[in-house]
């Protein structure tokens, strides 16, 4: 799998989520108001791995040496009464993803090599 993507039907959800399952074969998405969850896949990936880390504030997840980022995902701390208005998740470098949520987030990096 190259990445998980979500098209939310509304932006009113406090804790939208889209992230890979730990085996890297499917995506999990959440939005109480509705979501279209999409997994981008390819058959020519070597050394495929899903890396993740939980923390508060800025989180960086790095691929194993020799692997590259194929996609990023995030799963905010849930449930929580706290709402992060500035939540982000993005590719940071060729081999890492960056996430931010002051109240806590698990940041995911889908990594591997295309053959």
Topology at a glance:
Layout: E1 3-8, E2 17-20, E3 27-30, E4 35-40, E5 45-62, E6 68-76, E7 88-93, E8 96-114
Antiparallel strand pairs: 1-4, 2-3, 5-8, 6-8, 7-8
Brief overview, please?
This protein has strands at residues 3-8, 17-20, 27-30, 35-40, 45-62, 68-76, 88-93, 96-114. By secondary structure, the chain is an all-beta fold. The radius of gyration is 14 Å and the shape is globular.
Explained architecture:
By secondary structure, the protein is an all-beta fold. The chain has one domain. It is 0% helix and 63% strand. The protein contains no helices and 8 strands. It has strands at 3-8, 17-20, 27-30, 35-40, 45-62, 68-76, 88-93, 96-114. Strands 5, 6, 7 and 8 form a 4-stranded antiparallel β-sheet that branches. Strand 2 (17-20) and strand 3 form a beta hairpin. The protein is globular, with a radius of gyration of 14 Å. The mean pLDDT is 88.
Global shape: globular
Please report the total strand number as a whole number: 8
Strand coverage percent: over 45%
Poorly predicted regions:
none
Helix content: under 10%
- Terminal CA distance reads 14 Å
Helix/strand structural class:
mainly beta
Arithmetic mean of pLDDT = 88
The number of distinct structural domains comes to 1
Helices and strands, in order, run as EEEEEEEE
| Computed CA radius of gyration, to the nearest angstrom | 14 Å
Query: What does the main sheet amount to?
Result: 4 strands, antiparallel
The DSSP helix count reads 0
Q: What key phrases describe this protein's structure?
A:
115 residues, mainly beta, four-stranded antiparallel sheet, two-stranded antiparallel ribbon, 8 strands
């Amino acid at each position: 799998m190259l990445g998980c993507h979500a098209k939310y039907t509304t932006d009113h959800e406090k804790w939208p989520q889209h992230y890979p399952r730990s085996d890297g074969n499917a995506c999990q998405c959440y939005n109480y108001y509705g979501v279209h969850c999409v997994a981008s896949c390819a058959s020519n990936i070597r050394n495929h791995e899903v890396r993740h880390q939980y923390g508060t504030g800025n989180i960086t997840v790095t691929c194993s040496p020799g692997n590259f980022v194929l996609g990023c995902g995030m799963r905010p701390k849930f449930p929580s009464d706290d709402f992060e208005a500035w939540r982000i998740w993005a590719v940071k470098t060729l081999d890492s993803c960056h996430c931010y949520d002051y109240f806590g987030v698990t940041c995911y990096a889908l990594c591997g090599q295309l053959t």
